[in-house]
Amino acid sequence: MRHFLSLLLVIIGLQLSIQSIGRRSERSASRPYISVLTVTNGKWFGSWGEVEMCPRGTYAAGFSLKVDKPSSGDNKGLTGIRLHCISPLRALLDLHDDYSSVRSEVGSWGEWTEIKWCPCCFLTAFKLRVESYQGFGDDTAANNIRFKCSQETELEGKGTSWGEWGGWSQKCERGGICGIKTQVEGPQGNGDDTALNDVIMYCCD
């Protein structure tokens, strides 16, 4: 009986460990992709981060944003994007309890919003809300993002309202979005901070 209880505790521990792994960030930069999605209204401040890919066999079915809340000081708007990746079977069954999260470069300001999930399957296209260059004013660059899902459902993030929506990116013709790369401006000291400026998404079979 004691041996059985010990074995049961080991199995439960392994299950909890697997679940924890499924929710942590995992990098799979060597994963092959079939196409690249871009938009034309991104800004130019900052530098590009590393490409971060969903683990092989999974695709982005949801996302969350890191957002700097509007204030009377130097506003940054959108500061980061996370993709949340699941397997095709879990997407078809609408099961989002076991996922991996990936992100590229992220600004140091703001808080993460809750995850928004596609009602079916995967993210397939995106557009950005971007504020135009303000000159001597307060620049925020990217402020929000919208995604299309496999069945054309649209999801909008809880970003800020500055700027205008640009056009849609290209669409994943097969599979779904599986990776991300972001352009982020770091802290400028006494200068004007903008954080996230542009993003590239990747499609996998």
TrEMBL record:
Pfam families: VOMI. This is Vitelline membrane outer layer 1-like protein. It comes from the Eukaryota. GO terms for cellular component: extracellular space. Coiled coil: none annotated. The keyword DNA repair does not apply. Residues 1-17 form the signal peptide. Keywords: Signal. InterPro entries: VOMI (IPR005515), VOMI_sf (IPR036706). The lineage of its organism: Eukaryota, Metazoa, Chordata, Craniata, Vertebrata.
